[in-house]
Amino acid sequence: MDSGKKLSGTLALAVFTATLGSLQYGYGLGVINAPQKVIEKHYGRSLGVLPQNFTRSLNSTEDEEPHPLVVMYWSLSVAIFSIGGVCSSFLVGFVGDLRGRVKGMLMVNVLAIAGGLLMGLSILGKPHLMVISGRAVMGLYCGLSSGLVPLYIGEIAPVEYRGALGTLHQLAIVTGILISQVIGLDFLLGNDAMWPLLLGLSGAPAVLQSLLLPLCPESPRYLFIKLGKEEEARKSLKRLKGEYDPSEDIAGMKKEKDQVMREEQVSILKLVRSSQYRQQLLVALMMHLSQQFSGINAIFYYSTAIFHKAGITQPVYATIGVGVINTIFTMVSVVLVDRAGRRTLTLIGYGGMCCCAVTMSVGLVFLSTFAWMSYVSMTAIFLFVCFFEIGPGPIPWFIVAELFSQGPRPAAMALAGFCNWSCNFVIGMSFPYIEALCGSYVFLIFGAILFGSTVFTYFRVPETKGKTFEEIAAEFHHRRHHPPPDSSAATELELLKSSTEA
């Protein structure tokens, strides 16, 4: 059995190949920001609000206010990505079950390549229409990929490595963001001549992934539980874990299949209505709500202004520095998540972020009085990102796959993805207005939300480290059918006891 616990080359290849979709998701998130001023000029010429021969001064008029028509099309270019993700996130379960996890990822790569081509060739047509179309198609792809990747990795990863391998999804996302920030610099691809290539590269990881996916084994849980192909599941397990006796894994899947057979097919609507999965669903959705409403995206939006106030003449490099910190501490999470546990890291993350949000507000309020407060705010930004990536960043993505058995898992992943994308869109659209209304006190709002997230995690989120899917499901089942006789406080004590024992 020891050989079955080793990380095989095939498992490493499968996880790497899957996370190329996450890398593409991160690249798509970050790529649109750096070349904004350059692309706006091309929009203006295409829309007829700038002269057609307006080329020499493209980079020299960056501080001029763009035409309202350009602003509208640019805002749509940014927002359409999240709208595409919201729309397609509901289809994760359908696509994942249609032909399997591997073929599902292969199928949706058509969207990524099409979106990349639309943006890469946008200079040949009307740039504003082609970029918006390409971003919409890429958003559709990313909504599917952000569900399929954690679903596949969660099902193929050995229990003892499931947290670390699941965290690689978030690591690939932040790496993609960082790559887009670096190559989007003006002297690389973020300039007048190369920006279509910069956007077009959004589809490049899909090409590599399409070449590698046929080499990856299908999820053995999908093969056995969904299709009933025991022999193929055994072969898949041996490819993923090396030569070992898969009988124990097969026995675990048989138990899960027996449970699934006793259940009706779980659709999204049935999952929402079912009291059987209510506790798991509450935890899963709250994890994603807390992640997005933590203010992490608002921090990124506001960091450039804070760096500028601190006297940094090139705040874009400081923003890249945030991206580097983002990536480094996600790697720290990869190392810690299967040692410290999901619940512990999430608590540390939210607690630290809460303190940083309050510190950020103090720094902003007293910025005009004490110049050195800008450095307090800068430090708070960096620490905020560090605490986010230690736990609240990566863990919500893969813990959903851990909380649900095979039957409801695709529907749960779809709902969680929809929740995440929707909240991302709400924050992106509303933050400028909230910041204008609250000014320097805006991060106190996020501090309050983070405090609430910390309390919720402490009392309601179980520890899933080292537990099989069946054990996790059984724990929720026990809590639902065997509540303590006296008070809800005893429930929380029992939960805390079981969490610490794990």
TrEMBL record:
Task: Give the superkingdom in one word.
Answer: Eukaryota
Predominant cellular place of this UniProt entry's protein: membrane
Q: Which UniProt keywords apply?
A: Membrane, Transmembrane, Transmembrane helix, Transport
Q: Which residues form the Major facilitator superfamily (MFS) profile domain?
A: 14-465
InterPro entries in the cross-refs: GLUT, MFS_dom, MFS_sugar_transport-like, MFS_trans_sf, Sugar/inositol_transpt, Sugar_transporter_CS
Q: Which GO terms describe its molecular function?
A: D-glucose transmembrane transporter activity
Quick check: keyword Transport in the entry?
A: yes
Task: Read off the Pfam families from this record.
Answer: Sugar_tr
**Topology of the protein relative to the lipid bilayer:** Multi-pass membrane protein
Q: Where is it located?
A: Membrane
User: Where are the membrane-spanning stretches?
Assistant: 71-94, 106-124, 136-153, 165-189, 281-304, 316-337, 349-373, 379-400, 412-434, 440-459
A cellular component term from Gene Ontology for this protein is: brush border
Gene3D superfamilies in alphabetical order: MFS general substrate transporter like domains
**Annotated CDD domains:** MFS_GLUT_Class1
Q: Which GO terms describe its biological process?
A: D-glucose import; dehydroascorbic acid transport
* Family matches, as PANTHER family: SOLUTE CARRIER FAMILY 2, SOLUTE CARRIER FAMILY 2, FACILITATED GLUCOSE TRANSPORTER MEMBER 2
Query: Which family would the database say this protein is a member of?
Result: Belongs to the major facilitator superfamily. Sugar transporter (TC 2.A.1.1) family.
Full protein name? Major facilitator superfamily (MFS) profile domain-containing protein
Q: Which organism is it from?
A: Anguilla anguilla
| Lineage start | Eukaryota, Metazoa, Chordata, Craniata, Vertebrata
